[in-house]
Amino acid sequence: MGEYSIGVDLGGTNLRAAAIDRAGTMLEKAEGATPLSAGPDAVVADIVASILKVRASGGAERLVGVGIGTPGFIIMDKGIITESPNLPGFENFAMRDEIERLLQAPVLLENDANAAALGEKWMGAGRDVDDLVLLTLGTGIGGGIISNGEVLHGFVGMAGELGHMTVIPGGNPCACGNNGCLEKHASATAVTAMARMMGLGENLTAKDVCELALAGNLKAQVVFERMGVALGMALATLVNIFNFPLYLLSGGVLPAWELFAPAMFDEITRRSLVFRHTTTRIEKATLGNEAGLFGAAYLPFQSRIIAP
Amino acid sequence: MGEYSIGVDLGGTNLRAAAIDRAGTMLEKAEGATPLSAGPDAVVADIVASILKVRASGGAERLVGVGIGTPGFIIMDKGIITESPNLPGFENFAMRDEIERLLQAPVLLENDANAAALGEKWMGAGRDVDDLVLLTLGTGIGGGIISNGEVLHGFVGMAGELGHMTVIPGGNPCACGNNGCLEKHASATAVTAMARMMGLGENLTAKDVCELALAGNLKAQVVFERMGVALGMALATLVNIFNFPLYLLSGGVLPAWELFAPAMFDEITRRSLVFRHTTTRIEKATLGNEAGLFGAAYLPFQSRIIAP
Predict the structure, then answer these.
(1) In the structure, what pLDDT confidence band is assigned to residue A112 with cuts at 50, 70 and 90?
(2) 3-state percent breakdown (helix, strand, coil) of chain A, nearest 5
(3) Within-domain flag for A131
(4) Residues 211 to 230 of A: which have CB under 8 A from any B CB?
(5) In angstroms, what CA-CA distances link A185 with A135, A142, A194, B275?
(6) Whole-prediction pTM value?
(7) How confident is the model over A259-276, as a mean pLDDT?
(8) Are residues B193 and B222 in the same domain?
(9) Can you give the pLDDT at residue A304?
């Protein structure tokens, strides 16, 4: 009898679940909106419903467990979300125990960026390595660090806050209290803010700015060069710290790769002696927004928890 | 029958070796000058002689192996030093194999800052944790990362180049090709350079600047405040990345702790949300310049290599 697990990707907008077997084949997927405004109990009920929906696809195979990727800080040993700007109302919510109770199956909770990094390691661009760093370039910037094939958690579970690495000491103010955080200079939000400051328009999306740049708009091109420089500074520091073989980028800004990558690589080359001395790869992630689903589903396989 | 190992700390100036048993008791120590100008063969002969000297103290106990801490980049799987400004003439020298040949015993090579971090983990300030980062504040700044009780090496062996983290993007030029490396703003060399620029004197040592500051010299105090700010920026980034329970500082600048620590902690607090949310400890290392000896001696115990 084969084994499968269920991965859940809980976002502020979408809620997705998938049944995935040990070989990484997706057996079934369910997708819907996250009923955030209805509160934690409604969200949990939807999570459980979507798990039960994809569970049927497992047929006679054994369910190893359920993994859930969620935004915010997670106290790993307690399965509690302590802080999550993208999930208002979930502060100090005992997500893991509540879902275990309703589902009568073992549940593992993981930060969404960590889950995405693990997914890329299992079935994506990082399949051939045991150590990698993933940066997700979206509204903010998330980070996931895979060391020896496992998520690096730190002692509380807050490791990988790579969006809050300082890249420009006197740079843009961040809600975290710092100035010059990476996510204030290289996220989709940073791209649109820079475009606004350069007079390109008030209501542009990062995609709009990307299209302007590709059409030859010099100001829009400068936006992505600056973004690439900030990203390169952070990556240079990460390469000097970890000397990992692979660093992956994903998220909504990824389609602008050709626009920001040259400045990014220039900056890394200049600022990292480790990069210059090694064959470090800095590449696009390949699983897109399914990385988190795969990573969440991989958690039960990795932890060897067996469902009753 | 008990077991012991031999640790060697090879520096650009001093060469030390010690026999240490499994409980961490130093059985014997040998210390001398490193005969650098006589070339690699002379240095290797002295390393072997100092190992044989302390080996006698092991008596009937079983020698588990020999660990050697050395400055520079080490290609771990080959036991070769690729680049070491502090050991001229050793570029691409097959240190490990040469000493194994002369000694007829298994030898493990490790970067000196990594060895110091491991020593602090085994017998120093990090005894109660499995994860820590050590920064050695000397002529340059070295770094060692201990994750799950072991040195984090990266895929080549170059991880932990923490002295080359960028803290001030347009800062002081570094020999590595970057501007604003941590070691250009927070090492003993940076302290004396800042003191010189502020007109405190041309030939001061970091110790002189420290004494001036303690005696009330405002310019000297500003030097250490700036050093503390740079250190705090790097530590904030490390805390956000690793969420480890412990970060240790050691090296020649450590006696100035009271002068730089307040600015350092201010900066970390402001720049790291992970620091503010956790009980992260940032402390002085406790083994001083014996950390590298202990760490080197711990390598054979950790790797379970058995001597013939």
Answers:
(1) very high
(2) 45, 25, 35
(3) yes
(4) none
(5) 14, 13, 9, 22
(6) 0.95
(7) 97
(8) yes
(9) 57
Q: Are residues A263 and A196 in the same domain?
A: yes
List the single residue in A with minimal CA-CA distance to B129: A155
Distance between first and last Cα of chain A: 15
Per-residue model confidence (pLDDT) at position B1: 65
CATH code, domain with B93: 3.30.420.40
- Out of B152, B160, B244, the one facing A155 most closely (by C-beta) is B244
Question: What pLDDT does residue A1 have?
Answer: 65
Closest by CA to B142, choosing from B43, B252, B4, is B252
Whether A308 maps to a domain, the answer reads no
- Exposure string (b/e) for B114-145, b if CB count within 10 Å is 16 or more? bbbbbbbbbbbbbeebebbbbbbbbbbbbbbb
User: Residue B123 falls within a domain, yes or no?
Assistant: no
B190 class by beta-carbon count within 10 Å (0-12 exposed, 13-18 middle, 19+ buried): buried
pLDDT at A75: 85
Whether the CB of B92 is below 8 Å from some CB of chain A: the reply is no
Give mean pLDDT in consecutive 10-residue pieces for chain B, a chain of 308 residues: 91 93 94 91 94 84 92 86 81 90 91 97 98 96 96 94 96 95 97 97 96 98 98 98 98 96 98 96 97 97 62
B33 lies in the same domain as B182? no
* A163 to A104, A190, A304: CA distances (angstroms): 36, 12, 31
User: What average pLDDT does this structure show over A259-284?
Assistant: 97
Helices (H), B124-256: 183-186, 188-197, 206-214, 218-242
Closest listed residue to residue B44, CA positions, set B3, B85, B81: B81
Contact A117, A132 (CB under 8 A): yes
User: What value of ipTM does the predicted structure carry?
Assistant: 0.94
User: In a mutagenesis test of the B interface, which of A240, A275, A280 is the best target, namely the one with the most B β-carbons within 10 Å?
Assistant: A240
Domain holding A192, by residue range, is: 127-286
* Residue A24 near residue A294, CB atoms below 8 Å: yes
Of the candidates B155, B156, B233, the beta carbon closest to that of A169 is on: B233
Within a 10 A sphere around the Cβ of B195, how many other Cβ atoms? 26
pLDDT digits (tens, 9 = 90+) for A47-60: 999 999 999 876 77
Reading the block at residue A24, the tokens are: 């990484």
Q: Does B255 touch chain A (CB under 8 A)?
A: no
